C-alpha cells in the first residue's frame, strides 16, 4: 500500500489512537470529545523498545517495533483500530510556498508538485508529498499560502508497515513536532489571556535528542534539534556502577541506585541539561529578532527526572514548568491519576496525534 503523507492534514473519523514511536519506546493515547471545548483521556499506555530497534528516528527492526505496538495496544484496553502516527521532524521537509488564488484542486496539485521539485533533493517518485492551504498570503490577498510537506516514501512505508503488522489501520501521518505543538496549544490557551503574545519555549528532552520549538500565538518562530538526551544519564550510570544499559535504564526509572548516585551522577547531569537549555535559548536570541522567553515548558521522558525543573528554572530565570498534555481534560475511570502525573510529560506527541481524531 502506498500511503501519501496523505492525510497529513485532513479531518479524520473516530475512534483513533495516537501512536508515538520513539527511540525508547511506543506510547499510545486515546481521547474522546466530551464537548466542543473539553476532551477526555480514555486510555494511555507505553511499552519499551529494545535498544537499536529505532535509531535517530529510523526504524531498524520492523518486527520488534510491531510487536511493541501489539503489546501496547493490548495493554491499553482500547478497541480502536485506526491510528495516527508521527514522522520525526528530521525526516520531513516542510516549506511554505505562495501560489495564485482561485486554482482548482487539480491545478493546485500540479503547481505544488512543480514547486516541490525545487525544494526536495530527491526524485519526486521517491517521495510522499502532501500540502495544506493555510489561507490568504500575508502580503498579497490574491495569492494563497500553502504548506508543503515531503518525506522519503520508505520512511513513511516503514511506519505504515508497523501499524499494519499490529493489525491497525494508519489513517493519519503527522509530523511529531506538529503533534507536540497541537498538544501545547491546548496548554498555552490555559495561560492568562489565552497565552496571546507570550513567547513559549518547549523543550522535548528524549532519550537521544532534545527538540526545541519556540512558539508565539500558535506559530513556530524557531525550531532546532540538539544531540542531548536521557541516554547520557543512563551511560553515566553504566560507567559508574558497571551495569548493563538495560539494568541502568531500569534502575534509573525506579530509583534503585547507590547512595552516592544523586551527588555523583544525577546532579552533574541536571547541571549539564540546564546548560543545554540555557545555550539553546541564547542561540534563539542571537539567531532571531526576539530577546525574551516568557514561559518554558519541559516535556519528554527526561522531564520527569527529579530536580530537573528546579535546576532549569534557577539557571534560566524563566518561568518553567513540566508540561502535562492532559491538563484540564476529564479522565476516564480506569486512568490512574497518580501514575499519570508521573508519566504525562512523555506523552506530549502521542496526545497531539490522538487529537487528530477531532480534525
Automatic annotation (TrEMBL):
Q: Which residues cross the membrane?
A: none
What SUPFAM superfamilies does its record include? Actin-like ATPase domain (SSF53067)
- Matches recorded under InterPro entries: ATPase_NBD, FtsA/MreB, PilM, SHS2_FtsA
Per its UniProt entry, which superkingdom is the organism in?
Answer: Bacteria
**Matches recorded under Pfam families:** PilM_2 (PF11104)
Which sequence ranges form a coiled-coil region, renumbered to this chain? none
User: Domain SHS2 spans what residues?
Assistant: 16-184
Q: State the PANTHER family in the record.
A: CELL DIVISION PROTEIN FTSA-RELATED (PTHR32432), ETHANOLAMINE UTILIZATION PROTEIN EUTJ (PTHR32432:SF3)
The protein, known as: Pilus assembly protein PilM
Amino acid at each position: 500500500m502506498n500511503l501519501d503523507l496523505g492525510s497529513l492534514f485532513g479531518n479524520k473519523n473516530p475512534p483513533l489512537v495516537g501512536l508515538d514511536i520513539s527511540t525508547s519506546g511506543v506510547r499510545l493515547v486515546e481521547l474522546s470529545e466530551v464537548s466542543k471545548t473539553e476532551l477526555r483521556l480514555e486510555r494511555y499506555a507505553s511499552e519499551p523498545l529494545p535498544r537499536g530497534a529505532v535509531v535517530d528516528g529510523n526504524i531498524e527492526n520492523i518486527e520488534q517495533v510491531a510487536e511493541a505496538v501489539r503489546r501496547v495496544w493490548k495493554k491499553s484496553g482500547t478497541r480502536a483500530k485506526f491510528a495516527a502516527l508521527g514522522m520525526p521532524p528530521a525526516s520531513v521537509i516542510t516549506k511554505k510556498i505562495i501560489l495564485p488564488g482561485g486554482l482548482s484542486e487539480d491545478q493546485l496539485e500540479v503547481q505544488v508538485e512543480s514547486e516541490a521539485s525545487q525544494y526536495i533533493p530527491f526524485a519526486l517518485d521517491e517521495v510522499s508529498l502532501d500540502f495544506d492551504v493555510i489561507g490568504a498570503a500575508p502580503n498579497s490577498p490574491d495569492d494563497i499560502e500553502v504548506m508543503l510537506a515531503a518525506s522519503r516514501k520508505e520512511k513513511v512505508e516503514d511506519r505504515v508497515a508497523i501499524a499494519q503488522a499490529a493489525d491497525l489501520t494508519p489513517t493519519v501521518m503527522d509530523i511529531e513536532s506538529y503533534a507536540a505543538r497541537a498538544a501545547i496549544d491546548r496548554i498555552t490557551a490555559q495561560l492568562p489571556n489565552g497565552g496571546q503574545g507570550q513567547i513559549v519555549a518547549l523543550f522535548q528532552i528524549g532519550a537521544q535528542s532534545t527538540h526545541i520549538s519556540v512558539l508565539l500565538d500558535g506559530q513556530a518562530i524557531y525550531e532546532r534539534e540538539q544531540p542531548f538526551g536521557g541516554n547520557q544519564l543512563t551511560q553515566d550510570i553504566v560507567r559508574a556502577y558497571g551495569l548493563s544499559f538495560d539494568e541502568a535504564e531500569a534502575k534509573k526509572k525506579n530509583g534503585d541506585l547507590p547512595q552516592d548516585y544523586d551527588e555523583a551522577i544525577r546532579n552533574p547531569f541536571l547541571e549539564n541539561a540546564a546548560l543545554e537549555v540555557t545555550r539553546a535559548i541564547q542561540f534563539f536570541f542571537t539567531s532571531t529578532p526576539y530577546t525574551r522567553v516568557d514561559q518554558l515548558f519541559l516535556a519528554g521522558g527526561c522531564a520527569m527526572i527529579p530536580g530537573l525543573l528546579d535546576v532549569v528554572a534557577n539557571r534560566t530565570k524563566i518561568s518553567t514548568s513540566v508540561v502535562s498534555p492532559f491538563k484540564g481534560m476529564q479522565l476516564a475511570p480506569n486512568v490512574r491519576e497518580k501514575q499519570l502525573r508521573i508519566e504525562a510529560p512523555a506523552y506530549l506527541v502521542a496526545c497531539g496525534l490522538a487529537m487528530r481524531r477531532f480534525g
